[in-house]
UniProtKB/TrEMBL annotation:
Belongs to the proteasome subunit S3 family. InterPro entries: CSN3 (IPR050756), PCI_dom (IPR000717), PSMD3_C (IPR013586), TPR_PSMD3_N (IPR057985), WH_DNA-bd_sf (IPR036390). Residues 1-24 are annotated as: Disordered. GO terms for cellular component: proteasome complex. Residues 458-488 form a coiled coil. Keywords: Coiled coil, Proteasome. It comes from Basidiobolus ranarum. This is 26S proteasome non-ATPase regulatory subunit. The keyword Coiled coil applies. Residues 245-425 form the PCI domain. It holds the Pfam family PCI.
Length: 497
């Protein structure tokens, strides 16, 4: 190919190449608004379908899509949705528009606005969107006023198709009061709503309200009342994984404060496994892992180092990594320095009291390492190595470690030293059996939970019964036909004879 042909081909390609026109910011905003409004219309259709078919799964689907809508929604889009679904001079319409800003809204085609009353499900759904929007705008006083109005509306409608939406409204109602540090004001209302939800078997609201009450008690360090609430209530089995994960975390914290570390660790593992594994739930994952690390250390176990290297947890777990290192090597001085350096972090996480309990674990770990290194050592040397105040403290701590089974040794009180016994084969004890029992119990629990979480089509057994009846009818007809055929054969034989 000559140079002239190459130049001609390039010119043809440049002429046929599509021209890319960059869109302006207004065009991009209008396209985004159209997409969000389309998602809202789809959610309205799902809510109408949920009311007509009495199927809650359509409401679940609509609320699941709401999470992505919340990040893209604006005041103008909300105004369009309100103008689209609410008839003229509707009380809720006027109230919702008053909570949005007074800027000029986008042009709305209201030709398809129905003159009939709007469904309560769609009315409260749009109100929920407005509530989350003004919460994101940090207008907390407006949020409190609107949430109180929506709680009253939920009680007035009293429809079972509103259960999931009312649970969300209760959640943001509590969130608005929490951000203004007024959680104690709504505790009687939450308790009354929880009793009502239990009587009506409203599992979504019951699970949400139970977690909100536990969070309310924890906010004011009322752990005894939280324990009594857990003892007198039952968490619904059909609740979603998100609420179940929160409930397991609260149970884990209660059990940890009650020194029941094994139960606490089991509950926290359930919370970690049930929680969504994405960046959206990063805060919850960090909170649960912080408490799980402390509980694991209090149980005498050391967390895996790979846990502290996960991208979502690495920065948040840095203070807990230093605490873990101090406990692992049994260095009391390093433990005290870390505690003083990150005390503000531990207090903000409300884990400072639990971390103070780790001081005895650090000393026990130091004693165990010393017992592995020395067959005989004086109490004075133990006091110097562990930075204890006196030899009497060292003697008491060593005696407690021997009683708890941390070390296998004897104390010579007269001469002031301890003497370790010979190392016993661990497989001659019950520790391997207990470890296998814990693993098998966890696998069985996971299997049972998986079976409970399975969903089946409604009235599927009726179809099976109908098919079984049809099969029996066909068998009866076939048997009758065979008998008739046998009789015909017999008659033919007689005739031939």
């Amino acid at each position: 190919m000559t140079n002239m042909e190459i130049d001609a081909k390039k010119s043809v390609d440049e002429q046929t190449k599509p021209v890319v026109v960059e869109k302006s910011e207004e065009e991009k905003a209008s396209e985004t608004a159209a997409l969000v409004l389309g998602d809202l219309k789809h959610n309205f259709y799902l809510l109408e379908k949920a009311v007509l078919t009495a199927e809650s799964r359509f409401t679940t689907r609509a609320l699941r899509i709401t999470a992505s809508i919340r990040r893209r929604i604006t005041s103008d889009i909300l105004k369009q949705a309100i103008q689209l679904k609410f008839p003229k001079e509707h009380g809720t319409k006027t109230k919702l528009l008053s909570y949005l800003d007074s800027s000029e809204s986008m042009e709305v085609d209201t030709a398809d606005v129905k003159s009939t009353e709007v469904l309560p499900e769609i009315e409260l759904y749009i109100s929920l969107l407005v509530l989350t929007f003004i919460l994101d705008q940090k207008e907390y006083n407006k949020s409190i006023e609107l949430s109180n109005y929506l709680i009253d509306a939920v009680h007035d409608y009293n429809r079972r198709s509103l259960d999931q939406i009312s649970a969300r409204i209760y959640f943001y109602h509590s969130r608005a009061y929490e951000l203004t540090d007024r959680l104690a004001e709504i505790r009687p209302k939450l308790l009354a709503a929880q009793r009502t939800a239990t009587l009506r078997r409203d599992d979504d609201s019951q699970a949400t309200l139970l977690n909100l009450l536990l969070r309310n008690y924890f906010h004011y360090n009322l752990y005894d009342q939280a324990d009594k609430l857990v003892a007198k209530t039952n968490f619904p089995e059909s609740a979603g994984n998100n609420q179940f994960a929160r409930y397991m975390y609260y149970l884990g914290r209660i059990k940890a404060l009650q020194l029941d570390y094994s139960s606490s660790h089991a509950h926290l593992l359930q919370a970690i496994r049930k929680a969504p594994q994405n960046d959206t739930s990063a805060g919850f994952q960090q909170t649960v892992h912080k408490l799980a690390i402390i509980v694991q250390l209090l149980m005498g176990e050391i967390p895996e180092r790979s846990l502290f290297r996960q991208p979502v947890l690495r920065k948040a777990l840095t203070p807990y990594l230093h605490i873990t290192q101090a406990v692992r090597i049994g260095d009391l001085a390093q433990f005290q320095d870390t505690l003083a350096k990150f005390s503000h972090v531990f207090r903000a996480d409300k884990n400072y009291t639990l971390i103070l309990r780790l001081r005895h674990n650090v000393i026990k770990t130091g004693i165990r390492m010393i017992s592995l290194s020395y067959s005989r050592i004086s109490l004075r040397d133990i006091c110097l190595k562990l930075h204890l105040d006196s030899e009497e403290d060292a003697e008491y701590i060593v005696a407690k470690a021997i009683k708890d089974g941390v070390i296998d040794a004897t104390i010579d009180h007269e001469n002031g030293f301890i003497k370790n016994k010979e190392i016993v084969d661990i497989y001659s004890t019950n520790e391997p059996q207990n470890a296998f029992h814990q693993r098998i119990s966890f696998c069985l629990t996971l299997h049972n939970d998986s079976i409970k979480a399975m969903r089946f089509p409604l009235n599927a057994h009726r179809k099976e019964l109908e098919s079984a009846e049809a099969a029996r009818e066909r068998e009866r007809e076939l048997a009758i036909e065979i008998e008739e055929a046998d009789l015909d054969d017999d008659d033919d034989d007689v005739g031939d004879f």
